[in-house]
Every structure is written in structure tokens, then in C-alpha cells.
Write a structure and sequence with these properties.
Radius of gyration of chain A: 27 Å
Number of strands of chain B: 7
Distance between the termini of chain B: 61 Å
Shape of chain A: globular
Radius of gyration of chain B: 24 Å
Strand order of the largest sheet of chain B: 2-4-5-7-6
Number of strands of chain A: 11
Structural class of chain B: alpha+beta
Number of domains of chain B: 2
Largest sheet of chain B: 5 strands, mixed, barrel
Order of helices and strands of chain B: HEHEEEEEEH
Distance between the termini of chain A: 54 Å
Largest interface: A-B, 44 and 35 residues
CATH topology of the largest domain in chain B: OB fold (Dihydrolipoamide Acetyltransferase, E2P)
Number of domains of chain A: 4
CATH class of the largest domain in chain B: Mainly Beta
Structural class of chain A: alpha+beta
Shape of chain B: elongated
Largest sheet of chain A: 6 strands, antiparallel
Strand content of chain A: 5-15%
Oligomer: heterodimer
Chain lengths: ~650, ~160
């Protein structure tokens, strides 16, 4: 019964999305208000049906209804309830349904918020959103159907992939990722609408910026959560390996970040319109490419991905979207009138241009390194991957250059600057640069790139803090009270600026933490017998005992380690091996002692409960925790910048 | 067409040219960077077939651990042999063997061939793939299955 109801909901959503998309595009040509009204209604209908389908799947999972194919595939009576709830996005079919659900919510909200406004752009935007929605509903209805009826329902299922059950971060990383990924559809719709109309007026910049900013915030946090999950679960002491899956989440983030900057140039100077639209569209195309790369299994094998229709179907959609975008750009980009011009090489807008070029360069670097093995395998049938040194050697210099711009750009004024103005703006932050580099050197940083990063970071930090409080200081100079100046200058009228500089400040922290933690990591391999103490990275580590523990869905072998420093007990770490019922081989879980200065990370290589011995790898890396904290602050800064300036000032 | 329009066109072409040159330069750097950092996924047969190419190249070698070949060296180092249907390759690794390392299990080692005639590895991974089943005793190794295992083994990450 339940599978049939699910399939009906999906078919209904497919019809609603298709009808709405057609009506939207027709209304965009005929300017029919009735057509637009109905397109909006179909948008809400699509959202309602797909969200219901998602809720139905959750009900089936929670009710252990193994007559639903997806439940039979990932459900299990043995796993905790939270694992059952997050199973919706733990496997292929469910995650594509989740894609549709998130898209439905985004489309409903975007349609509601833009109702009665932007009537010039809304029909086409709805058309594009619902065309995308129709594709995903088609995917769910056909190749990736999670609502198939199991003729002989099993009594129990295997449960989701154990690696995903191993840490609670898996419950929140995918929703954030989808909120980021899927949300990029909304600005894509606006960008296409602008091209279809041949006009990117000032009115459209606000919804374009805001609809890009929100998913950007989610995406930033999602990338961090993914790294954090890898760090806490995979046991190799790092958080980023330039894995295709990781790269897929980074690529659209890079172009979205570039677009958020170029939109400001459009606002201020009326230039870079076509460029900005291209960036927004590329972001969406990279999202679809990323969905293809991660959801089709193509990285496990180019040949096995054709065994399921999902990969080829997404590939066809990617091709169609690319063709649509390129054709749209080719025919309409000349219509976008340029209102201003670039003033000088040493102006803020010129720095924005360089920033954009560097982001695009980074995107290409990562894209080529990610796709290259696929192309070689498809053409020559040989299997290989691109090693980490390629990414590191290409990305580190570009990243450093971007950090440099993050200091210099905001220091320079818009338009032409005199020599005197430039000196005044660019010389003082050298103090911050020297200060950060010296502190780093005193703390033992010797790696050249890390010292450069610290210097650029110090420069950027000083500029950021100075710029952040400009509005407040202006008001104090005028005679306002400090509190009043803060509220008006930072939180009300200057809120967008304040939020943006919070993001910049957090980015400085993230980049420094990445540089220092990766260049100063220490690794030691140690073998313990019970009661034995070893020294590693200044810590005294003692194996107190090896314990075996049974839980309903897994069997654990746990090493209990006392960690101390200078005779003082600090903490107890419990790295473990997990044997899941449905897995042949055990999976290790590391354990981490986190402090503001450094992380101590223990990962089991070998453990023997009978002999009470264990071999561990000890990783000591400074500043790791600041990566997670600073990315969350980035998100908060983004939210502050996103709240419209009018709110709260009345 | 007035003068400023002409200038603008000229600048436009100049900028386009600069972009093309920069793009080509970038492509050359990127492709050479990729070529220097390729990691090959090979079976013992591929490795033997590659001849001199195997020396110095980064290789992810996948095969079965030959029974009776595991020898503990000093410290954490281990020496063993991996084989597929037709070829065998001696391996020395400095990394701690993982929990389930044993004879007749599928492993993936990352490293390179050295002139001493063995494969020097700094990473040893046992397949986590549930779908992969090692061949029953006495049956030849299925090369296709082996390839699948090499591709699917996760966690082989660099430091």
C-alpha cells in the first residue's frame, strides 16, 4: 500500500513540476498574469507533493515497513532511532528523494518571497526551478525509485553503511550539504531569467545575491562538517584528502564565492554583469556535475556506473543544462548593457576582478584534477587517480594569493586612488603582517608557505578589523555615543558590511589554521602492552586496558588510554575497533583530545583483547579546532550580512 | 565609430588575448602537474607488464597475500608477497599492518618498485569492500574482482 502511495506522490510531483515549468516559460513570453499565477500554484503543489513523499518515506523507515524497497535496502530494526531517521539520505535512492524535498522547500519559499515583485523575471525563474524539479522527480519516479514494492518483504534489513552510523556528524552533514547544493538552483533561475529577458536590472541584484548567499552559508558549513566527520571517523588524522567526493562539494562553493564578490561590482559600478551571471550558472552546473560524480558511482568504476540508469540520466540532464546555458549566454549576453567602466588597476574593483580570476583558476585546477582520471579511464580503459601533491602544489599558491587580496582589496578605495591615498591604505597593515609572522616563528613555525600565510593573514586581519568598524567610528566622531554608534553603524545600516568583514576575519583564521596544522603535524606509531607508557609529542600515553563490548548492532574492542602531560592526568581516550553485523571486516574509530592549542589524535592500527596489547598511530596537530570554529563564525557572519538592512531599524 | 569606441575595442581584444595566453599557460602547468602526480591502479600482472615504468611511479598495487609469505621484520615493518592469477610481487612495508591483515586476503599497498626488486610501500590497506569475496581455496584469482577491490579500497590517504 505504502509503496503505491509513494509512487503516486512522486508522479503527481512530476506532473505539477512539468505543468508549472511550461506555464512559467509561456507566461515569460506572453506576460500573462494568469499564467504566472498558475505557475506559482503549481510550484506550491510540487513542493507539497514532494515533501509529503519525503515524509512518507520517513514514516516507512520508522515503521520498518520492509515492503518499501528503500527500507529493505537501508533499514534495520537493530539500529538506534536517529540512525533510522537519517537513513533517508544514507543511500542513493533516498538521497535523491531528499534532493527533491529540499528543492521543493526552496522553490516554495523563493516563489512566496518573490510573489508580486520582480514580475519581469519571476515567470522564467519559476520555469527554470520547476524544470529542474521535473528532472529530479523523473529520476525518482524512474531510475532511482525508492518506492518499489518488495514482493517478499524481508523481516529485517542490513541498516545503512556502518561508516555512516559511526558518528553523529553524519546526521547533520548531508542536510547542510543539500541545503547548500540544492539552493544554488534558485539563483540559477534568476540568472537564466535575466538572460532570457536580456536585462539584469538593479532590482534583480538583491534576490540574486540573497538567494546565492543563503546556500553559500550552508555549503560553507557543510564542507567543514564533511572534513570534521572524516577527521573524527576515518582515522588517518586528516580532514581533507582531495577525494572526488570532497572536491565535488568544493567546486560550486568556489564559483559561488566568486559570484558573491562580483555581484558587488555590478552593484557599485554596473560592470561584470555577464560575468556574474556566468558564475552563477557555472555554480549550478557544478552542482549537477557534483551530484553526478557522487551519486552515480562513477568513481568506483567508469564501467559499473552504466549498470544503473541513474548516472547516465544525470549526465544527460547535465548536458542539456550546459547546452541551455551556453546557448543562452551566446545569444543574450550582448543584451546586458554595461553602465560603468573599470577605473584603474589599483582600485577596489580591479582587486575584485583579480579575486574572481583566482577563484576561477582554483575551480579549474580542482576540476581538472578530479575529472582527469575519469576521462583517461573512459578513453584508454586505464585506472589511476591524481595524487594529493598535484592539488597541494597548485592550490597553496593560489590560496596564498587570495589571502593577500583579502588584505589589499578592502584597504583600497573604490574608483581611482591617488598615490597618497594608496600609501595611507596599504602601509599600516604591514604591522599586522610582521606581528603574525613573528608570533608564528616564535611558536616554532618554520615552513615557508606557513610563514607567508601568517604574514598575509596578519595583514588581512588588521585591514579587516579596521574596515569592520569604520561606520561605528564615523558615528562616534560625529558625536554619537559608543553604544548607539555600534548599534546603528554595525547592526542596522552597516549590517551587511559588518557581516561581510566577520566572514573575512573568519576566513583568515581558517586559512592560518589549515596552513599551521598541516605543516606542523607530528605522527608517531606506538605499540603498547597493558600498563605500558610511551611518550609522544610531549604527552605521556598509557594503555590501561583493552575492553570488549557488545551493542545490538555492533561488537567493539576498545583501547583505554590515559593521557597526561608533566605528571598531570589530562584525559582518557578510547579509540576502538567496531565489528558491524553486516560487515566482514572491522572499522576503526579514532579518539581525539582537543584543546585550543593542539589536538592529540589516537587511531588504532591493531588491538588484541586476549594479549591486552594495542598498536596506535598518534597524530599531534596544532590549531585544528579553529578550522571548525571559524567556519561556523563564517556562517554567522554570512547570516548577519544576509538579513536585509531594513529589518530591526524601524 | 569614434575614437573612444576604437580604443575600447582595442582594449577588449588585448584583454581577450591576455586571457587566452594566461589560460594556455595555466593548462600547461596543470597538465604537467597532473602527469607528475598520477597514481596508477595496478595488479601484479600490470606491474610486471609495465617494465621500467614501475620504478619510481606511484602505484596502488592490489593482490592477494600469498600463504606462507608473511615475515615480520624489525619494528613495525612487514615483508610479504602479493599475487594475482599469473604474477607475484614481493612487498616490504613500513606501516603497521591493520587488524585483519592475514594470508589469502585482498590487500592494496601504495608505493613504488625499487631497484632491489621488491615493492616498497608506506601504506597497507585491507579491502573494506563488503561485496568483494576472496576466491575459494584452489581457485584462480579473478582479475576483474581484483580490479574492483583496488578501486574501492577507501582510506588509502596520504599524510
Amino acid at each position: 500500500m505504502l509503496p503505491i502511495l509513494g509512487r503516486l506522490l512522486i508522479l503527481g510531483s512530476l506532473l505539477a513540476a512539468t505543468a508549472g515549468a511550461v506555464l512559467g516559460f509561456v507566461a515569460g513570453r506572453t506576460l500573462s498574469l494568469d499564467g504566472l499565477k498558475w505557475a506559482r500554484r503549481f510550484a506550491y503543489l510540487y513542493a507539497a507533493l514532494i515533501v509529503l513523499a519525503g515524509l512518507l518515506m520517513e514514516a516507512a523507515l520508522l515503521g520498518h515497513d520492509f515492503s518499501v524497497s528503500y527500507v529493505a535496502q537501508v533499514g534495520s530494526r537493530q539500529v538506534p532511532t536517529w540512525v533510522t531517521i537519517v537513513s533517508l539520505w544514507s543511500s542513493l535512492e533516498g538521497s535523491i528523494l531528499f534532493w527533491g524535498v529540499v528543492l521543493g522547500i526552496y522553490i516554495a519559499i523563493a516563489t512566496f518571497l518573490t510573489r508580486g515583485r520582480y514580475s519581469e523575471y519571476q515567470p522564467d525563474a519559476i520555469g527554470v526551478w520547476l524544470a529542474t524539479a521535473a528532472f529530479f522527480s523523473f529520476l525518482i519516479a524512474g531510475p532511482a525509485n525508492p518506492f518499489q514494492t518488495m514482493p517478499n518483504p524481508p523481516l529485517d534489513g542490513p541498516g545503512p553503511n556502518p561508516l555512516l552510523q559511526n558518528h553523529a556528524l553524519m546526521a547533520i552533514h548531508p542536510p547542510f550539504l543539500y541545503l547548500g547544493y540544492v539552493g544554488m538552483t534558485i539563483p540559477f533561475g534568476f540568472a537564466c531569467a535575466a538572460l532570457l529577458k536580456g536585462r539584469l536590472g538593479h532590482a534583480l541584484l538583491k534576490p540574486l545575491r540573497e538567494s546565492l548567499m543563503l546556500p553559500w552559508i550552508f555549503q560553507s558549513i557543510a564542507i567543514m562538517l564533511g572534513g570534521w566527520w572524516a577527521y573524527e571517523v576515518l582515522g588517518w588524522g586528516g580532514y581533507w584528502a582531495w577525494d572526488p567526493v570532497e572536491n565535488a562539494s568544493l567546486l560550486p562553493w568556489l564559483t559561488a564565492t566568486a559570484a558573491l564578490h562580483s555581484i558587488m561590482v555590478v552593484e557599485r559600478r554596473g560592470i561584470l554583469k555577464g560575468w556574474t551571471i556566468t558564475l552563477v550558472q557555472s555554480t549550478f552546473l557544478l552542482v549537477i556535475l557534483g551530484t553526478f560524480m557522487t551519486r552515480s558511482g562513477v568513481f568506483n568504476s567508469v564501467h559499473s556506473f552504466t549498470q544503473s540508469a541513474i548516472g547516465p540520466t544525470i549526465l544527460v540532464f547535465l548536458g542539456a543544462a550546459l547546452l541551455f546555458t551556453v546557448a543562452l549566454l551566446a545569444f543574450r549576453i550582448d543584451k546586458l548593457e554595461v553602465e560603468g567602466r573599470l577605473e584603474g588597476a589599483a582600485s577596489r574593483e580591479a582587486m575584485f576582478l583579480v579575486n574572481n580570476l583566482l577563484f576561477v583558476l582554483l575551480t579549474f585546477t580542482v576540476l581538472i584534477g578530479t575529472v582527469f582520471p575519469l576521462i583517461v579511464e573512459a578513453v584508454k580503459g586505464k585506472q589511476m587517480s591524481v595524487g594529493r601533491p598535484y592539488f597541494d602544489s597548485m592550490v597553496v599558491p593560489v590560496g596564498a594569493a587570495l589571502l593577500f587580496l583579502l588584505g589589499v582589496g578592502p584597504a583600497l578605495p573604490w574608483g581611482r586612488a591617488t598615490r597618497d591615498q594608496m600609501a595611507k591604505a596599504l602601509v599600516p597593515p604591514l604591522t599586522g603582517a610582521a606581528l603574525f609572522a613573528l608570533i608564528g616563528y616564535a611558536a616554532g613555525v618554520r615552513n615557508a608557505w606557513s610563514l607567508i600565510t601568517l604574514a598575509f593573514g596578519g595583514y588581512a586581519a588588521q585591514v579587516t578589523i579596521a574596515q569592520m568598524f569604520v561606520p561605528m567610528l564615523q558615528r562616534i566622531k560625529r558625536g554619537d555615543s559608543a553604544a548607539g554608534a555600534f548599534i546603528d553603524g554595525q547592526l542596522r545600516r552597516g549590517r551587511r558590511r559588518f557581516g561581510s568583514y566577520i566572514v573575512h576575519g573568519a576566513v583568515v583564521v581558517v586559512i592560518i589554521a589549515i596552513a599551521v596544522s598541516s605543516s606542523m603535524r607530528q605522527t608517531t606509531e606506538l605499540t603498547f602492552s597493558k600498563g605500558q607508557t610511551h611518550k609522544a609529542s610531549g604527552f605521556d600515553i598509557t594503555l590501561t586496558r583493552v575492553e570488549e563490548k557488545r551493542e545490538p548492532h555492533r561488537f567493539m574492542t576498545i583501547g583505554h588510554f590515559d593521557v597526561g602531560r608533566g605528571g598531570r592526568h589530562l584525559t582518557t581516550l578510547e579509540p576502538r575497533m567496531n565489528q558491524y553485523q553486516m560487515m566482514r571486516d572491522p572499522i576503526g574509530s579514532p579518539d581525539v583530545y582537543t584543546t585550543p592549542v593542539r589536538d592529540l589524535y589516537l587511531s588504532l592500527a591493531n588491538i588484541d583483547p586476549v594479549a591486552q596489547t594495542a598498536t596506535i598511530t598518534v597524530y599531534e596537530s596544532p590549531m585544528i579546532v579553529w578550522i571548525w570554529i571559524a567556519v561556523i563564525i563564517m556562517g554567522i557572519g554570512g547570516l548577519i550580512a544576509l538579513i536585509p538592512a531594513g529589518v530591526g531599524s524601524a | 565609430m569614434n575614437e573612444s569606441e576604437k580604443m575600447r575595442r582595442k582594449t577588449r581584444w588585448f584583454m581577450l588575448g591576455a586571457f587566452v595566453v594566461a589560460g594556455i599557460a595555466f593548462a600547461v602547468i596543470a597538465v604537467s602537474g597532473i602527469n607528475k602526480n598520477l597514481v596508477y591502479y595496478w595488479t601484479p600482472s600490470d606491474l610486471r607488464g609495465a617494465g621500467d615504468k614501475a620504478y619510481g611511479a606511484t602505484i596502488r598495487l592490489g593482490g592477494m597475500v600469498t600463504p606462507g609469505s608473511i615475515k615480520k621484520l624489525g619494528g613495525t615493518a612487514v615483508e610479504f608477497e602479493v599475487h594475482d592469477a599469473t604474477q607475484r610481487v614481493p612487498v616490504k612495508t613500513s606501516s603497521v599492518p591493520p587488524q585483519m591483515f592475514r594470508e589469502n586476503i585482498g590487500v592494496v599497498v601504495e608505493g613504488t618498485m625499487v631497484r632491489g626488486g621488491y615493492f616498497q610501500s608506506n601504506r597497507l590497506m585491507v579491502s573494506h569492500n563488503n561485496e568483494y569475496k576472496p576466491p575459494a581455496k584452489g581457485h584462480p584469482v579473478d582479475q576483474k574482482e581484483l580490479r574492483k577491490m583496488i578501486e574501492s579500497t577507501e582510506g588509502l590517504k596520504d599524510d
